[in-house]
Amino acid sequence: MKIKEVIAVVNLMQADGVIECYAIGGAVGATFYLEPVATLDVDIFVSFRTEPGKLVVDPRNILDYLTSHGHSLKGEYVVIADWPVQFLPPTSPLVEEALREAVTVDVEGQPARVFTAEHLAAIALQTGRAKDKARLLQFVQAGALDAMRFEVILTRHNLLDRWRKFERQFLSGTP
Amino acid sequence: MSLDLQRILAGKRALRRELAALPVAEKLRLLDDLRERELTLRRSARPPTSNVAREQPARYPAKGT
């Protein structure tokens, strides 16, 4: 399985101290909770080791490490086991929290750190593109969200109004 | 097989539930297959023209917004 190879490489990066911690997000992350949906890339959110006094995140360590291990760069992506992988810093308090509270899932004996379903859904709501809304709808229809946990996250990150709007738009009359 | 829309939709929901309930490793294997299929379809498709409407890439909000 190629995605398993991607996870193995990211675990190795963590073990080698290139990244502090990581969590799988996006469509691949959602697949841990929902039915698989075609996607072309893998989103890995990472916390970087920042040097004292430096505010800007520098992904050079990651890129140097991966290229020295035989992986190639393609635009914004690193190609690992044929999958374009994007390493993303947490860009909002919500994503920072999602990274902190990510869970470890066993994939055939290998640990994979992934955002919780509630954080994936909240991030989809916050990002708000058509496909994010479709994913959020999948989470709701699959009954994959803990309602209390989800509401706490939405409240903490000022997303309740957006959620109410989403409910009005897409969930009135959902079986 | 039925042409009853309600039954068709219920069948789709049931299939999605079955797929979602598969072991994670199996679902990740399906992602590999789906991606291969998607790439094959894209390779065989006509090249897009410049005036095609497209989705914008994700803009994750910056801190504090």
How would the blueprint of this fold be written?
The complex is a heterodimer of chains A (175) and B (65).
Chain A lengths: L1 H14 L5 E4 L1 H6 L10 E6 L12 H9 L3 E3 L2 E4 L2 E6 L4 H8 L2 E5 L2 E5 L2 H11 L2 H12 L5 H10 L3 H12 L4
Parallel strand pairs in A: 2-5
Antiparallel strand pairs in A: 1-2, 3-4, 4-5, 6-7
Chain B lengths: L4 H16 L3 H21 L21
Largest sheet of chain B: none
- Highest CATH level, the class of the largest domain in chain A: Alpha Beta
Number of strands of chain B: 0
Instruction: Give the terminus-to-terminus CA distance of chain B.
Output: 51 Å
Tally of helical runs of chain B = 2
**Average pLDDT over all residues of chain A:** 93
Low-confidence stretches of chain B: none
Please summarize what this structure is:
Chain A has 175 residues and is of the alpha+beta class. Helices cover 47% and strands 19% of the residues of chain A.
How would you describe this protein?
The complex is a heterodimer of chains A (175) and B (65). Chain A is of the alpha+beta class and 175 residues long. Chain A folds into two domains: 114 residues, Beta Polymerase, domain 2 (2-Layer Sandwich); 54 residues, no CATH class. Chain A contains eight helices and seven strands; from the N terminus they run H-E-H-E-H-E-E-E-H-E-E-H-H-H-H. In chain A, the strands form two sheets. Chain A has a five-stranded mixed sheet, with helices on both faces. In chain A, strands 6-7 form a two-stranded antiparallel sheet. Chain B has a domain of 37 residues. Helices cover 57% and strands 0% of the residues of chain B. Chain B is extended and about 40 Å long. Chains A and B meet through helix 1, helix 2, strand 6 and helix 6 of A and helix 1 and helix 2 of B.
